[in-house]
Each structure stands twice: as C-alpha cells, then as structure tokens.
Design a protein that fits this description.
This protein is α/β, with parallel strands linked by helices. The protein has 13 helices and 14 strands. It is globular, with a radius of gyration of 22 Å.
Length: 390
C-alpha cells in the first residue's frame, strides 16, 4: 500500500496488536502540527492555538462518529493509553454511590483490565469474579450477579476472538443494575462494528493500535461520569482556584471531557488520531478484503503445520502459536529471533496475558503474528517460506 511506502523492502512487521504502523497521512498530520501550528490547546488566543483547538475538537467528534455514539449521551477524553484510562475510572469511581457490590472480569484479559480490577477490588473490599470466556469469545451472562461492575475486552489480543454476545452482556449488566466498561484496544482498527448498537458505560482504547500516534481515549456516558470522584487533578481541569477550594471545569457540560484530562495534552497525537480515523474511513473494500485473505492464508498454513500449535480457532488479524522444544529443539523465543534475522518482526512471550496463558492454559511462551493493512500477500509468502526453512 502506497501509504506505507517508507517501509524497507524486506521488512515484514507483524506486531500491529502492540502498535500499528502509521500511514503517511497520519505522519503528515503530526508533522503539520509541529511545523505549522505547534501550540497549547484551550489556553491561547493566537491563531496557532485556534487551529489546534479546532482540530482537537474535530477529533472528539470523529471518535464518536466512528463508534456511532451520540454526543448527547457520551463524551471523549484523551489519556496516555488503555491501561491509563481504565485505571483513571477504576481508581476514582464512587463504589458506594454506584451501588456496586462485585467487580467482574474474564480470564482472557490483558493485564490492563485484569490488574486494575484486582486493585479496585482490594481498595474497595469488593468480591472479584474472574469468568471463563467461551472459545467463541462470549461471556456466560448467567453468571453475572446484580450490582456488578464488569470490565472486559471486546476483542482479545491473543487470538482476536470477539465478545460475540456483547449486546446481551451489556443489556444483562444494566438490567441487573450494574455497569460495564469495555476494553476496545484490539477492536478499534479492524472490528469496531462490534461496538455499534451497544451502550456500555465506558469504552477505553489506545490510538496507537489503530494507525494513530501513541495515545489513549475514554468514551464515557455522561451519567456514568457523574459517579467518578475526580481526585487526579491538575492544570486544564479547573475554572477557578482559591486557597483551599477549586471549581472543576467538568461541571460545565461543554467542558465535561476535562474530567480526565489533567495537565497539557498531546495535541499533535490527538490531531493524528483524527487523521487516522479519516484514513481508516477512506479505505476501499479491496483493502479490507486483502487483509481478510492474508489472515486466512497465514492461518491455513499455521493450522496445518505439524510442529506449530495454533491457539486460534478461526482466522483473525491476530494469531498466536507455540512450538514444542521437545519436538523442534527450540522454543518460541528462539524462533522469534530466527524470524527477526529474516526481517520478520513478531512478538514472543505471554503478551501481558500471564494469568490465562501461563497459569490457566500452562502454555510455553508463544509467538504472535498480528497483521495490518500494510501487509501484502508477498509478505505472507515470505513468512511461510521462513517458517518452513527454519
């Protein structure tokens, strides 16, 4: 694809689940900020600042439109990453006011929700339940109790499996007087449709997994935000300050997003996210189809190889597998290094899903291939040839 023409000819990048490559329009948007209107947002009256403010506000609107969420019910705040966003919510939620009695997550979670729910449960003396997800990614809704705070992903960073019953999960949680926060980090680039038509109380994601610069975001319901006691406070969040008191800007509906935006924000990165959304929306059907076909081609090879133990049950842009040292004489880390020698960049280890992969499944370290729109059929051929050779 021309927007990744800067890539070296022999480089095959298969770590998009960690951070995707940035297409040229996104790089250009970031450079334009630094070179043409480098300025503080929401603080200045000169022209550069006006341009920055307009582009940042446009990005907030683009995020909501991308997810088909209404600005009447949701607002967007920018953070460092998904982990940061989840911790901002879970460390500040007023458990008593929300009536929460239990906190729930699932076994296939990234450490972001897994660890933050442990911390929240300990701090608030809550019972914490870890539900086992089904092989198709669904959550057993019959095991969700009343007055629960549910924090789960809608797409796994292990094998891309989706929370296929997300609509029923959200409806069940709300019917039982609970709340649900969705980790959408792995869904935003290639599976955003799963979030259409559902209304979780908050969605956290990382822009750097959707072809944008390094950035995080919280998309949160207005009513849920009222249950957050804002204690992580700094510049950019207040309208007035006295010796012992302050007036939070979030109390003004037009500035509700400041509730989670302490200090100077990453204005250029936010603008880059807007450019990434524009770029994703501009992709042709053939680009989507090529990604699907490349994923299936690689899946078919991995599934059929006698010494490759594939975790995936179905093709996805994210696929994980391991090799048995007794069978091959080497482990996944060594295989990952051997692939790197061929210019093939993949992730090895447990991908921040230690509990499930190591302690539940007892897998040895794995290799993860995660594809993006920059991958070509020739790249897949190179990967297959390298694996056969090794």
């Amino acid at each position: 694809m021309k927007d990744f023409a800067y890539l070296e000819k022999n480089a095959v990048y298969l770590d998009s689940a960690c951070q995707s490559l940035r297409p040229q329009p996104v790089i250009d948007a970031l450079n334009d900020y630094y070179m043409k209107h480098n300025s503080c947002g929401e603080r200045v009256k000169y022209e550069w600042g006006t341009i920055t403010d307009e582009k940042v506000e446009a990005t907030r609107a683009k995020v909501l439109k991308y997810l088909k969420k209404s600005s009447r019910h949701y607002f967007v705040s920018f953070t460092l990453n998904t982990t940061y966003g989840l911790n901002l919510l879970l460390s500040q939620i007023n458990i008593k006011a929300a009536g929460i009695k239990t906190i729930i997550t699932s076994d296939i979670e990234h450490n972001s929700p897994f660890l933050s729910t442990i911390s929240c449960a300990k701090k608030n003396k809550l019972k914490r339940i870890v539900l086992s997800r089904n092989e198709d990614g669904s959550l057993p809704i019959e095991k969700i109790p009343d007055h629960a705070l549910v924090v789960v992903n809608c797409a796994s960073n292990i094998d891309g499996r989706l929370l296929v019953n997300i609509k029923d999960v959200v409806k069940t949680v709300h019917k039982k007087h609970g709340f649900i926060i969705i980790d959408a980090a792995q869904a935003m680039a290639h599976s955003k449709e799963i979030l259409y038509g559902v209304e979780p109380d908050a969605i956290c994601f990382s822009a750097h997994k959707m072809y944008a610069p390094s950035l995080g975001a919280i998309v949160i319901k207005n009513d849920f935000a009222k249950l957050i006691d804002t204690t992580f406070i700094g510049g950019g969040m207040v309208d007035d300050v006295d010796r012992e008191t302050y007036l939070l800007s979030k109390d003004n509906k037009e500035h509700n997003y400041t509730q989670f935006e302490s200090g100077l924000q990453a204005w250029g990165e936010i603008i880059g996210l807007g450019a990434a959304i524009d770029w994703l929306n501009s992709l042709s059907k053939s680009a989507h189809q090529e990604l699907v076909e490349n994923s299936k081609k690689l899946f078919d090879f991995l599934k059929s190889h006698p010494h490759i133990h594939l975790i995936n049950q179905a093709p996805a842009t994210t696929m994980s597998f391991y090799v048995d040292k007794k069978e091959t004489g080497f482990d996944s880390h060594i295989l990952g290094a051997a692939l790197a020698d061929e210019g093939i960049m993949a992730r090895t280890g447990y991908f921040c899903v230690h509990y499930y992969l190591d302690h539940v499944k007892h897998y040895p370290p794995l290799i993860r291939f995660s594809l993006g729109y920059h991958i070509t059929s020739d790249d897949i051929d190179k990967v297959i040839a390298a694996l056969k050779n090794i």
